[in-house]
Amino acid sequence: METSKTGKYFKYAIGEIILVVIGILIALQINNWNEIRKSNLEERSALENIHRDFSKNKELLINVMASTKKILSSGLEILNHTGNKGKPTSENIINTWLNDIFNSEPYYPQNGFLDDLLSSGKLGIFKNVELRNLLSSWKPKVDVLNEKFNSMDLNEDILNKHIIEHGSWLNADQVIKMTRSINFPVSGFDVDNRNLLETLLFENLVENYVISADNYYMYQLETLKLLNEIIVVLENEMTNKND
Question: What does pTM read for this prediction?
């Protein structure tokens, strides 16, 4: 009888242990499901935030590119009329070009959410390795783009100094159609900005500025390519998360 009782108790104890183990496994599985669900929700939210920022970044970059293209176009117009190539028929024509060529814009993307992820070491929230690699290459790309702008901006300042010394911004500003709080008079000096076209120095300064603007524009194209790649991967990931 004692042996029979011992056997029953042993079986009962084994059963209790199995039930406890099963309970622990179920609890661990539920906890794992909750962690996965929480991680997926965080990733989906991060994808939406990054997508919003980079969609805006694309819009901002396209606007900057339009300004740079205007610099290139106006700069080439000026270079087509330097020296013995013939002056424009009206001073207002070169005045328009001068205003358009001083049209540089820096690029200031919205990187707040990405900066937070990078600084906190949470870029790994994205499971897609390609996306992580693309996002990691974004800030270095923007840094180089800023260097290209700074080079162009320096050449713009040098050209502006030459115009200040040898031309008239008062004359040039007469062709700008915008609302101001004041109306500038014409220059009190007998000056025609078409005369700027006659010097080799002016031609060289404009050419240097156009080259730096073209370098800036070419790197804008590379940056736009990266932007488009990031946005495509983001949208694919967002679609997959919603399936």
Answer: 0.84
